[in-house]
Design goal:
Blueprint: E1 7-12, H1 14-19, E2 20-30, H2 34-41, E3 51-55, E4 58-62, E5 83-86, H3 89-100, E6 104-114, E7 117-127, H4 130-156
Antiparallel strand pairs: 1-6, 2-5, 2-7, 3-4, 4-5, 6-7
Length: 158
């Protein structure tokens, strides 16, 4: 049986980039059951309410919704359960120091398969204030309008 190559994104948390300013990102492996992997391979998952935390020197991912596998039997998994994250010890220590610093949280950005292995991209992030969100939206809109104006100019031959 040939091994999978490349990266296949299952779910992304687009809201996280809007609500938080991202400081650092980490790639972590996931400890999953068989039915969770099969459900993910069907492209079914939601990171909307998900968060990660460090407890007793271990990293955990909580409140991520991976729906039950359709063909699963009594061995099916609960959709929202705590899942262990696989990170190096020094990364866990670094993340825990940063989150204990205050104002920082650990947010999942995306869930994907990398060469057949389930991975999650975690971000050490700080929550944005409401005015920061509005300012970011305004900057994004200004860039879009400037790009539109430039493309219109180039089409007109100016």
């Amino acid at each position: 049986m040939p091994r999978e190559k490349g990266q296949k994104v299952v779910a992304t948390n687009r809201r996280a980039r809007h609500d938080y300013s991202i400081e650092d990102t980490y790639e972590a492996g996931l400890v999953l059951t068989g039915t969770e992997v099969k459900s993910l391979r069907q492209g079914r998952a939601s990171l909307v309410d998900g968060y990660a935390f460090i407890d007793g020197g271990e990293a955990w991912l909580d409140a991520v919704h991976i729906p039950e596998y359709n063909q699963g039997t009594w061995t099916n998994h609960p959709p929202r359960r705590k899942r262990k994250l696989l990170l190096h010890k020094d990364q866990i220590v670094k993340i825990s120091h940063k989150t204990k610093e205050g104002g920082y949280t650990l947010v999942p950005l995306s869930l994907y398969f990398n060469d057949g292995r389930a991975k999650v991209e975690l971000a050490v992030a700080k929550g944005k204030k409401e005015y920061d969100k509005r300012q970011a939206l305004r900057e994004k809109q200004d860039k879009r309008e400037a790009a539109r104006a430039m493309s219109t100019r180039s089409r007109l031959g100016e």
